[in-house]
From TrEMBL:
Keywords: ATP synthesis, ATP-binding, CF(1), Ion transport, Membrane, Nucleotide-binding, Translocase, Transport. SUPFAM superfamilies: C-terminal domain of alpha and beta subunits of F1 ATP synthase, P-loop containing nucleoside triphosphate hydrolases. It comes from the Bacteria. Gene3D superfamilies: Bovine Mitochondrial F1-atpase, Atp Synthase Beta Chain, Chain D, domain 3, P-loop containing nucleotide triphosphate hydrolases. It comes from Psychrobacillus faecigallinarum. It holds the Pfam family ATP-synt_VA_C. The keyword Transferase does not apply. Belongs to the ATPase alpha/beta chains family. It is found in: Membrane. This is ATP synthase A/B type C-terminal domain-containing protein.
Amino acid sequence: MEEIRLNVALLRRKVPNLTTAAKSIGIRPATVSNLCTGKIDLGKAEVKTLVGLASLANCTVDELIIRGEKKHMIETQIKALDFFAPLVKEGTIGIVARPGMGQLVILAELMHRFKESNHTSVFLLPQKEHSELEGTKELADYITTSVDDAYEKLSELTGDIIFITDRSYIISGELLDLQEKIISENIDGITTILVDLSGEVVDEEMPFGPLETVWQLDADLATRHMYPALHPIYSTSSVMEGTDVDQRHFGLRQRAQKLLRRYRELRSIVAVHGIQKLPEGELATYERGERLEAYFTQPFYVAEKFTGPGKAVSIEQTLNDVEVILEGKQDQVSVEELKFVGSLS
Protein backbone atom coordinates (compact mmCIF):
# COMPACT_ATOMS: atom_id res chain seq x y z
CA MET A 1 0.00 0.00 0.00
CA GLU A 2 1.33 3.41 -0.95
CA GLU A 3 2.48 5.61 1.93
CA ILE A 4 0.98 9.08 1.92
CA ARG A 5 1.50 12.02 4.23
CA LEU A 6 0.85 15.73 4.41
CA ASN A 7 3.41 18.06 2.84
CA VAL A 8 4.03 19.89 6.11
CA ALA A 9 6.98 21.91 4.77
CA LEU A 10 4.85 23.33 1.95
CA LEU A 11 1.98 24.12 4.32
CA ARG A 12 4.40 25.84 6.71
CA ARG A 13 5.80 28.03 3.91
CA LYS A 14 2.52 28.90 2.26
CA VAL A 15 0.35 29.57 5.34
CA PRO A 16 2.40 31.23 8.09
CA ASN A 17 -0.63 32.09 10.25
CA LEU A 18 -2.25 28.69 9.93
CA THR A 19 -4.32 28.75 13.12
CA THR A 20 -6.28 31.84 12.11
CA ALA A 21 -6.49 30.78 8.48
CA ALA A 22 -7.79 27.31 9.34
CA LYS A 23 -10.44 28.68 11.69
CA SER A 24 -11.60 31.13 9.02
CA ILE A 25 -12.65 28.26 6.75
CA GLY A 26 -14.07 26.04 9.48
CA ILE A 27 -11.11 23.69 10.06
CA ARG A 28 -10.15 23.04 13.68
CA PRO A 29 -6.45 23.80 14.37
CA ALA A 30 -6.25 20.52 16.34
CA THR A 31 -7.28 18.65 13.19
CA VAL A 32 -4.49 20.31 11.22
CA SER A 33 -1.97 19.56 13.98
CA ASN A 34 -2.99 15.90 14.11
CA LEU A 35 -2.73 15.58 10.32
CA CYS A 36 0.76 17.13 10.39
CA THR A 37 2.07 14.78 13.08
CA GLY A 38 0.28 11.77 11.63
CA LYS A 39 -2.01 11.29 14.63
CA ILE A 40 -4.83 11.36 12.07
CA ASP A 41 -4.17 9.03 9.14
CA LEU A 42 -4.14 11.19 6.01
CA GLY A 43 -6.03 8.46 4.19
CA LYS A 44 -8.90 8.93 6.66
CA ALA A 45 -8.98 12.73 6.46
CA GLU A 46 -12.13 14.36 5.13
CA VAL A 47 -11.86 15.47 1.52
CA LYS A 48 -13.23 18.91 2.41
CA THR A 49 -10.41 19.33 4.97
CA LEU A 50 -7.72 18.57 2.40
CA VAL A 51 -9.41 20.79 -0.18
CA GLY A 52 -9.59 23.59 2.39
CA LEU A 53 -5.92 23.27 3.29
CA ALA A 54 -4.97 23.23 -0.39
CA SER A 55 -6.95 26.42 -0.96
CA LEU A 56 -5.14 28.11 1.95
CA ALA A 57 -1.77 27.05 0.53
CA ASN A 58 -2.85 28.04 -2.99
CA CYS A 59 -1.91 24.63 -4.32
CA THR A 60 -3.62 21.48 -5.55
CA VAL A 61 -4.56 18.60 -3.25
CA ASP A 62 -1.98 16.48 -5.07
CA GLU A 63 0.73 19.01 -4.19
CA LEU A 64 -0.37 18.87 -0.56
CA ILE A 65 0.18 15.11 -0.39
CA ILE A 66 3.57 13.40 -0.44
CA ARG A 67 3.57 9.83 -1.66
CA GLY A 68 6.06 7.06 -1.13
CA GLU A 69 8.69 8.98 0.88
CA LYS A 70 9.91 7.64 4.19
CA LYS A 71 10.39 9.70 7.31
CA HIS A 72 13.30 8.73 9.51
CA MET A 73 13.91 9.26 13.19
CA ILE A 74 17.01 10.65 14.81
CA GLU A 75 17.70 8.37 17.74
CA THR A 76 18.51 10.41 20.84
CA GLN A 77 18.81 7.40 23.18
CA ILE A 78 16.46 9.23 25.54
CA LYS A 79 13.83 6.58 26.25
CA ALA A 80 10.69 8.71 26.50
CA LEU A 81 11.46 10.80 23.41
CA ASP A 82 12.43 7.92 21.15
CA PHE A 83 9.56 5.72 22.29
CA PHE A 84 6.60 8.11 22.37
CA ALA A 85 7.51 10.91 19.92
CA PRO A 86 10.68 10.33 17.88
CA LEU A 87 12.66 13.25 16.51
CA VAL A 88 11.92 13.49 12.78
CA LYS A 89 14.99 13.92 10.61
CA GLU A 90 14.76 17.17 8.61
CA GLY A 91 11.45 17.93 10.34
CA THR A 92 10.37 20.68 12.73
CA ILE A 93 9.92 19.82 16.39
CA GLY A 94 8.15 22.00 18.94
CA ILE A 95 8.54 21.77 22.73
CA VAL A 96 5.32 22.74 24.53
CA ALA A 97 6.05 23.66 28.14
CA ARG A 98 5.80 26.30 30.79
CA PRO A 99 8.96 27.63 32.43
CA GLY A 100 10.33 25.25 35.05
CA MET A 101 9.07 22.05 33.45
CA GLY A 102 12.50 21.01 32.20
CA GLN A 103 12.52 22.01 28.53
CA LEU A 104 15.94 23.66 28.78
CA VAL A 105 17.39 20.59 30.48
CA ILE A 106 16.09 18.45 27.61
CA LEU A 107 17.56 20.93 25.14
CA ALA A 108 20.93 20.93 26.93
CA GLU A 109 20.95 17.13 27.05
CA LEU A 110 20.17 16.87 23.34
CA MET A 111 23.00 19.25 22.43
CA HIS A 112 25.37 17.29 24.67
CA ARG A 113 24.39 14.05 22.96
CA PHE A 114 24.60 15.57 19.48
CA LYS A 115 28.25 16.37 20.16
CA GLU A 116 28.85 12.63 20.41
CA SER A 117 27.12 11.99 17.10
CA ASN A 118 27.61 13.34 13.60
CA HIS A 119 25.13 16.17 14.11
CA THR A 120 26.14 19.83 14.30
CA SER A 121 23.99 22.12 16.46
CA VAL A 122 23.33 25.78 15.65
CA PHE A 123 21.49 27.91 18.23
CA LEU A 124 19.79 31.12 17.10
CA LEU A 125 19.32 33.00 20.37
CA PRO A 126 15.94 34.61 21.20
CA GLN A 127 15.40 38.24 20.39
CA LYS A 128 15.17 39.08 24.11
CA GLU A 129 17.70 38.30 26.82
CA HIS A 130 16.93 35.19 28.85
CA SER A 131 19.26 34.61 31.79
CA GLU A 132 18.02 31.02 32.12
CA LEU A 133 19.85 30.17 28.89
CA GLU A 134 23.22 30.58 30.62
CA GLY A 135 24.88 27.20 30.75
CA THR A 136 22.61 25.80 28.03
CA LYS A 137 23.38 27.84 24.93
CA GLU A 138 27.11 27.20 25.36
CA LEU A 139 26.52 23.53 24.57
CA ALA A 140 25.68 24.39 20.96
CA ASP A 141 28.43 23.99 18.40
CA TYR A 142 27.60 27.44 17.03
CA ILE A 143 25.71 30.37 18.57
CA THR A 144 24.12 33.00 16.31
CA THR A 145 22.35 36.19 17.30
CA SER A 146 20.43 37.13 14.15
CA VAL A 147 18.57 35.42 11.33
CA ASP A 148 21.20 36.61 8.85
CA ASP A 149 24.01 35.14 10.94
CA ALA A 150 22.07 31.89 11.27
CA TYR A 151 21.55 31.69 7.50
CA GLU A 152 25.26 32.24 6.82
CA LYS A 153 26.21 29.51 9.28
CA LEU A 154 23.60 27.04 8.03
CA SER A 155 24.61 27.62 4.41
CA GLU A 156 28.31 26.94 5.06
CA LEU A 157 27.85 23.77 7.12
CA THR A 158 27.47 20.30 5.64
CA GLY A 159 26.04 17.08 6.99
CA ASP A 160 23.23 16.72 9.51
CA ILE A 161 22.39 19.96 11.31
CA ILE A 162 20.22 20.58 14.38
CA PHE A 163 18.92 24.14 14.25
CA ILE A 164 17.49 25.44 17.53
CA THR A 165 15.59 28.67 17.97
CA ASP A 166 12.81 30.43 19.84
CA ARG A 167 9.16 31.03 18.96
CA SER A 168 9.78 34.78 18.83
CA TYR A 169 11.14 34.34 15.30
CA ILE A 170 7.90 32.64 14.26
CA ILE A 171 5.86 35.56 15.58
CA SER A 172 8.06 38.08 13.75
CA GLY A 173 7.87 36.05 10.51
CA GLU A 174 11.66 35.89 10.25
CA LEU A 175 11.81 32.12 10.63
CA LEU A 176 9.49 31.69 7.65
CA ASP A 177 11.74 33.95 5.56
CA LEU A 178 14.79 31.96 6.67
CA GLN A 179 13.15 28.67 5.72
CA GLU A 180 12.23 30.08 2.30
CA LYS A 181 15.87 31.05 1.70
CA ILE A 182 17.09 27.64 2.83
CA ILE A 183 14.73 25.91 0.41
CA SER A 184 15.55 28.22 -2.48
CA GLU A 185 19.26 27.52 -1.99
CA ASN A 186 18.65 23.75 -1.78
CA ILE A 187 20.20 23.50 1.67
CA ASP A 188 19.12 20.19 3.20
CA GLY A 189 19.90 18.08 6.24
CA ILE A 190 18.45 20.63 8.70
CA THR A 191 16.29 19.49 11.61
CA THR A 192 14.65 22.35 13.53
CA ILE A 193 13.83 22.37 17.25
CA LEU A 194 11.59 25.19 18.50
CA VAL A 195 11.25 26.31 22.11
CA ASP A 196 9.19 29.02 23.77
CA LEU A 197 10.84 30.57 26.80
CA SER A 198 7.77 32.72 27.56
CA GLY A 199 5.60 29.68 28.31
CA GLU A 200 2.71 31.17 26.32
CA VAL A 201 2.93 28.25 23.90
CA VAL A 202 0.91 26.09 26.33
CA ASP A 203 -2.18 28.28 26.02
CA GLU A 204 -2.40 28.42 22.23
CA GLU A 205 -3.49 26.09 19.46
CA MET A 206 -0.66 25.29 17.04
CA PRO A 207 1.57 28.10 18.39
CA PHE A 208 4.52 26.87 16.33
CA GLY A 209 2.54 26.23 13.16
CA PRO A 210 2.56 22.77 11.51
CA LEU A 211 4.99 20.37 13.18
CA GLU A 212 6.28 16.88 12.47
CA THR A 213 6.92 16.25 16.19
CA VAL A 214 5.35 17.70 19.33
CA TRP A 215 7.03 17.21 22.68
CA GLN A 216 4.48 18.28 25.27
CA LEU A 217 5.75 18.38 28.82
CA ASP A 218 3.51 17.49 31.73
CA ALA A 219 3.13 19.63 34.84
CA ASP A 220 2.19 16.65 37.02
CA LEU A 221 5.34 14.73 36.07
CA ALA A 222 7.50 17.82 36.55
CA THR A 223 5.97 18.49 39.98
CA ARG A 224 6.83 14.93 41.02
CA HIS A 225 10.36 15.30 39.59
CA MET A 226 9.77 12.55 37.02
CA TYR A 227 12.15 13.77 34.32
CA PRO A 228 12.13 14.08 31.40
CA ALA A 229 8.52 15.15 32.02
CA LEU A 230 7.26 14.14 28.57
CA HIS A 231 3.52 13.66 28.38
CA PRO A 232 3.15 10.12 27.05
CA ILE A 233 -0.29 10.67 25.52
CA TYR A 234 -0.18 14.19 24.05
CA SER A 235 3.35 14.01 22.60
CA THR A 236 3.23 12.91 18.96
CA SER A 237 5.43 12.34 15.94
CA SER A 238 4.74 11.76 12.28
CA VAL A 239 7.44 9.07 12.30
CA MET A 240 5.07 6.87 14.31
CA GLU A 241 2.63 6.86 11.42
CA GLY A 242 5.28 6.38 8.74
CA THR A 243 7.31 3.54 7.33
CA ASP A 244 10.47 4.00 9.40
CA VAL A 245 8.96 2.66 12.62
CA ASP A 246 8.32 -1.06 12.70
CA GLN A 247 5.01 -2.54 13.77
CA ARG A 248 6.50 -3.75 17.03
CA HIS A 249 7.33 -0.20 18.10
CA PHE A 250 3.94 1.04 16.96
CA GLY A 251 2.12 -1.73 18.83
CA LEU A 252 4.12 -1.35 22.04
CA ARG A 253 3.53 2.38 22.03
CA GLN A 254 -0.21 1.84 21.73
CA ARG A 255 -0.17 -0.68 24.59
CA ALA A 256 1.96 1.59 26.78
CA GLN A 257 -0.30 4.60 26.14
CA LYS A 258 -3.40 2.55 26.93
CA LEU A 259 -1.89 1.44 30.24
CA LEU A 260 -0.66 4.91 31.18
CA ARG A 261 -3.98 6.52 30.26
CA ARG A 262 -5.83 4.21 32.64
CA TYR A 263 -3.12 4.54 35.29
CA ARG A 264 -3.52 8.32 35.21
CA GLU A 265 -7.27 7.93 35.76
CA LEU A 266 -6.64 5.62 38.70
CA ARG A 267 -4.15 8.07 40.21
CA SER A 268 -7.01 10.54 40.65
CA ILE A 269 -8.94 7.95 42.68
CA VAL A 270 -5.91 7.10 44.79
CA ALA A 271 -5.11 10.79 45.42
CA VAL A 272 -8.60 11.42 46.86
CA HIS A 273 -9.63 8.12 48.45
CA GLY A 274 -6.43 6.12 48.83
CA ILE A 275 -5.24 2.99 47.08
CA GLN A 276 -7.69 0.81 49.03
CA LYS A 277 -10.56 2.37 47.08
CA LEU A 278 -9.36 1.19 43.69
CA PRO A 279 -11.93 -0.89 41.79
CA GLU A 280 -11.44 -4.63 42.14
CA GLY A 281 -8.99 -5.91 39.55
CA GLU A 282 -7.44 -2.47 38.90
CA LEU A 283 -4.62 -2.67 41.45
CA ALA A 284 -2.34 -4.56 39.05
CA THR A 285 -3.03 -1.98 36.32
CA TYR A 286 -2.20 0.87 38.71
CA GLU A 287 1.02 -0.68 39.97
CA ARG A 288 2.19 -1.66 36.48
CA GLY A 289 1.48 1.88 35.27
CA GLU A 290 3.55 3.20 38.18
CA ARG A 291 6.47 1.01 37.13
CA LEU A 292 6.24 1.98 33.48
CA GLU A 293 6.09 5.67 34.36
CA ALA A 294 9.12 5.27 36.64
CA TYR A 295 11.04 3.44 33.90
CA PHE A 296 10.70 6.40 31.53
CA THR A 297 12.63 8.67 33.90
CA GLN A 298 16.27 8.83 32.89
CA PRO A 299 19.58 10.15 34.24
CA PHE A 300 20.93 12.96 32.04
CA TYR A 301 24.61 13.71 31.46
CA VAL A 302 23.99 17.43 31.96
CA ALA A 303 22.20 16.87 35.28
CA GLU A 304 24.24 14.10 36.88
CA LYS A 305 24.37 15.76 40.30
CA PHE A 306 20.57 15.46 40.44
CA THR A 307 19.88 12.23 38.53
CA GLY A 308 23.05 10.20 38.88
CA PRO A 309 25.41 9.25 36.02
CA GLY A 310 23.92 9.87 32.59
CA LYS A 311 22.57 6.89 30.66
CA ALA A 312 21.99 6.29 26.94
CA VAL A 313 19.47 3.62 25.97
CA SER A 314 18.95 2.45 22.41
CA ILE A 315 15.43 2.32 21.04
CA GLU A 316 15.77 -1.43 20.58
CA GLN A 317 16.61 -1.87 24.27
CA THR A 318 13.77 0.47 25.24
CA LEU A 319 11.31 -1.65 23.25
CA ASN A 320 12.56 -4.80 24.97
CA ASP A 321 12.26 -3.19 28.41
CA VAL A 322 8.76 -1.80 27.81
CA GLU A 323 7.58 -5.20 26.61
CA VAL A 324 8.93 -6.84 29.77
CA ILE A 325 7.10 -4.32 31.99
CA LEU A 326 3.84 -4.58 30.04
CA GLU A 327 3.92 -8.35 30.36
CA GLY A 328 4.25 -8.10 34.14
CA LYS A 329 7.77 -9.51 34.32
CA GLN A 330 8.91 -6.58 36.51
CA ASP A 331 5.94 -6.68 38.89
CA GLN A 332 8.21 -7.91 41.67
CA VAL A 333 10.52 -4.86 41.31
CA SER A 334 9.74 -1.77 43.40
CA VAL A 335 8.86 1.51 41.72
CA GLU A 336 11.86 3.21 43.34
CA GLU A 337 14.23 0.68 41.80
CA LEU A 338 13.01 1.67 38.32
CA LYS A 339 13.42 5.43 38.73
CA PHE A 340 16.34 7.08 36.99
CA VAL A 341 17.93 3.96 35.61
CA GLY A 342 19.04 3.29 32.09
CA SER A 343 17.94 -0.05 30.73
CA LEU A 344 16.55 -2.90 32.82
CA SER A 345 19.65 -4.93 32.00
